[in-house]
Write a structure and sequence with these properties.
Layout lengths: L6 H15 L19 E2 L4 E2 L2 H8 L8 E3 H6 L3 E2 L6 E13 L17 E18 L3 E2 L13 H12 L2 E4 L6 E3 L4 E4 L8 H15 L17 H21 L12 H10 L3 H17 L11 H15 L10 H14 L4 H18 L8 E13 L2 E4 H4 L5 E8 L4 E7 L2 H18 L3 H18 L5 H21 L2 H21 L9 E2 L7 H8 L9 E4 L4 E4 L27 E3 L6 H8 L9 E4 L4 E4 L13 H5 L8 H11 L16 E3 L11 E6 L5 E6 L4 E6 L7 H37 L3 E2 L5 H6 L8 E2 L6 E6 L5 E7 L5 E3 L10 E3 L2 H6 L3 E4 L2 H11 L3 E3 L6 H11 L5 E4 L10 H12 L3 E3 L7 H4 L7 H6 L4 H41 L7
Parallel strand pairs: 8-10, 31-32, 31-33, 33-34
Antiparallel strand pairs: 1-2, 3-6, 4-7, 5-6, 9-10, 11-12, 11-13, 13-14, 15-17, 16-17, 18-20, 19-20, 21-22, 22-23, 23-24, 25-26, 26-27, 27-28, 28-29, 30-32
Amino acid sequence: MEPKKPFHEVVAERLIEQLKAGTAPWQRPWEPGQPGAFIPMNPTTGKRYKGINAIHLMGQGRTDSRWLTYKQAAAVDAQVRRGEKGTPIQYWKFTEEQAKTDDQGRPVLDAKGQPVMEEVRLERPRVFFATVFNAEQIDGLPPLQRKEQTWDAVERAERILQASGAAIHHGEHSRAFYRPATDSIHLPDKGQFPSADNYYATALHELGHWTGHPQRLDRDLSHPFGSEGYAKEELRAEIASMILGDELGIGHDPGQHAAYVGSWIKALQDDPLEIFRAAAEAEKIQEYVLAFEQQQVQEQTTQQVIGEAQEATMQQQPEIQRPSIAPADEKLAEALRLVRTADSFPSRRFQEGVLDATTDETLGFRVPWDWTGIVQTKGAIERDGQVQWAEDAGVEPQFFGVYARKADNTFEWLADVPTEQQAVELADRLAVIDAYAIENEHDQAAAFARIHEERVRRDPNRTDEDISAAKEARKTAEYAATVKNDPDWQRRAEQYERDQAAQAQQSVPGNVVAEKVWLDLPYKQKEAAKHAAGNLADGKCAIDWDKQEKRWYARPGADLDKIKQWLPGQEAKATNLATEKTWLAVAFEQREAVKAIAGKLPNGDKAVDWDKAAKCWYANPGADLDKLKPWIATEAASRQRPALSPEEEFADTLRSMGCVVSGDHPVMDGKKHRIEVEGDKKGEKAGFYVGWLDGHPAGYIKNNRTGIELKWKSKGYSLDPEQKASMQAEAAAKLVARAEQQQREQDRAAQRVGKQMADLVPVAAPTPYLEAKGITPQAGVYTDRDGQKTYIPAIDADGKQWTMQYIQEDGTKRFAKESRKEGCFHPIGGLDAIAAAPAIVIGEGYATAAQVSQALGYATVAAFDSGNLEAVAKALHEKYPDKPIVIAGDDDQAVQNNPGKTKAKEAARAVGGTAFFPIFAPGEQAANPKGFTDFNDLAMKSTLGVEAVERQVQAAVGKAIEKHQVRSQQQAQKQEQQHERKQERQPRAVRI
């Protein structure tokens, strides 16, 4: 049985046949004065079908525009005739309403006890199919009533053109077109059109192209006339014109676009989904154009927009009074603020003590120092000496617990109160204290607004209008805080103004030549000069070649400032010299010209060179940047890009996979990059990607939290050499900047950790963590004055401390913020002891390394996690090349792909070492794979115990040392033999 074809292939194949016959929906003309007569619509909903569904239904050749499902027809006492075949349509669902839940997974209820619904964006949009029948296939429907045109189509079209603000020129040319370079529409004189309807249909068609400008709908308009890309854009504008013609009643004349049929057919044959994209973008075009009927678009600067928005906000937002606070509570808020803003560990510890004393005195209980400001109340009962949630037990609460959410998203119990009202009042009091503790005035205003809204919602005397006003006031305050706290916001506003000014400056060049000006332009530099000169309004290059004089010249209208280095006798003085390595966006074809333009530095070195690692050209310090201005990465990046750059497209794909795209991500340099994903805790990066810009942009993404992976390819936006070079230059510059920033952050973190060490003491008695792991305290491990937390310093191969692992009493682990961990480790027994050991034995965690060290009787290394094993192994192998490297790995059978075993083997392979893993008693690991993973588990949990650790570790490491010694002896013998053969081949001296 032949498999059923996908919907998009069925639609595309039918349209290809209709295109060949000249009967595709947008190829059929219709006369003005018949609005709504052609685009398919559903009489039950009163709405028209959109996008590909409209195209597909129009392609069925029906004269009635009404389409219904079988049930819709039956609902109006109509009947689909027996034997009639329906037409499939599809629609996508990107969001759905779901019941909102709290942190415990319980439904959130409103004041009336009904579940609060929220619109959730689906991780994977769902597609649905339906079958519809045309009115001609249905008995019992009333005759089609043609929509009466109650408006003047010409006046309506004119209003749209006027409101758009588009620059429209008449009479300059005999054809109609839109010119992206000048952002202008060009039409023949109105008298050349057979009717006003025909004129406005043409004008609106060109207005459709006009919407593709980067500042509007941002489509790819860079393709030349006659190309496939140009034909694709024409397809979008033609479908949009067809929809607009039906909506306005001005008709549709497709006669001018027969030349594109061949390209349209080829595009659909190559990619059946192209018609789906074209129809969707055509809908966006007509929506954008019709919107001009409701609003007048005005050019405003960013500051004007901001000013008006702020003024409107002030007019709409009722002033929210600061909630009153008792003096004792205000003192508590001050203590909380000081803890949150403490800039050092000792300072924070001191402020924690002040906070504890203040909360004990003011509230009668303590508030955690890392309280996020969120409070939750919960009804509870006491049964058999245990506290249970009343909701789970299905009974009325005996009392109500009040809990504070901490920074790690866990809740800490604060107090129990007898009634729900008392719980609400306590939560409100705590919310006020938290708000007064907020240092940032904008965040504080948002917190006050949230308190106000919550109080209004609880007040039974308040109306729905009051609640709505409080909600809007809260949203406005939160938006204001988001914008005003954004450090880049003002910069972006100022940059926008600069860009606008630059565009205005470009539109009116400062040194425009009015007549032909000769140039001294070497042949090798002609392409570079063309690139720098740019194009004039006619679309042709600003410089040209005079065949008779055999010399290059600047055309009238050219900006001489752009090409001053080629003006006769106008050698520019090098006043703008590079002070550092400057990345350049140089296309392959331009490389020789750019090298010639840049010349050499005074010391004879090249002014520009190629960076093999970054695969990008750069200017050396001392190069004249004025000569290289068109190729400086920031300059090249400002030129028009494709409708969606591969980086932007890849970023969208990352987001769809649950990745949190921020900072410099994505970095498309062909290297591996970790990235945060939704659900990660602070500092975690469970996502991974690699992206390439070479050739056809592609990449690979994996979300390790969900297990979903994806091989990505760009949708086909081609990169010309200049764009590719520009992106490579930007990527190289970003990598350098990011590396420098990361280095600065890591240096600061190392200094911070070093200072923190002064407040710690060496472990004398086992901490809760060491006691739980059965580890005897070793030198080099520290704790606090209370002996509760465990602090494990991490150093590099040279002994410099970069970070520290903090282990809480419950075993929770974290590292110093923004510190360097890669390649850092903790030597059990010290770095000198590692140097004296017969082998470098590396384990993942501290407990594993300590257990192995105890079994061997000499120093080992803790790499902290499996992802750091290879980096540590390489660093120590480089420092101690004569020592064997042995990895005591974890066996993570409970985790997909067993990262412990995989990473251990990879690390061993990278340095020519050996990896070995714990072997448990039969059935132990199978019964509890999560609890039996490492050598500490073997010692503490297995029936085999410490003896098994000693037996397995000593055997594996001893074998590795013996193997290394044999290999070293063989290599020494081989080198000696090679030396002897070399000596034998040397010519003997001849006695004369």
